[in-house]
Amino acid sequence: MTEQxxxxxxxxxEFSQSWFLWVMAAAVILMFSFVILPYVDPRxxxxxxxxxxxxxxxxxxxxxxxxxxRLSDLRxxxxxxxxxxxxxxxxxxxxxxxxxxxxQLGDDIYLLGVxxxxxxxxxxxxxxxxxLPYPNAFDENDALALAYRVSTLPTLVIVAPDGHISSVKxxxxxxxxxxxxxxx
Length: 184
Fold this sequence. Notes:
There is one protein chain. With 184 residues, the protein is of the alpha/beta class. The protein has 2 domains: 14-43; 56-181, Glutaredoxin, CATH 3.40.30. 34% of the residues lie in helices and 20% in strands. A hairpin with a 6-residue loop joins strand 1 and strand 2 (68-70).
């Protein structure tokens, strides 16, 4: 008669190893949810119709050194806010289109470039090279971009004369599209 041996016990993970794997899986899911998912759908948040957040930004060009710009000072005019960064190639393309239409806008529309998600020195170097004919301000700590929920560059925010947001668009516009957007 042959002796039957009991089957060797199946190896299983110890409790501490199982716990570690569950924690790591949860961390990956959380990171995906909070870091990656917001960028999957690049459409800007629905802000049309909401009151535009006031700001007080220092101008990098389009004024004397140290001059500041406030949205509240522009009440009664349509304001185009162009959020851009020097490292963003689509932003560079958009700034060329904005430079072309800036002289056509007239006094009832104020165009302001807003450098965000960038180093100030890099933004200033871009402005020196591009010689943009409209004022640009620096968004310290990206505070204004956060207030307007800008997650994609370039983004244009159109503020109506009454101080409410009429449009938020994240794309590169042609001259005709931009003029139509502001009703010119």
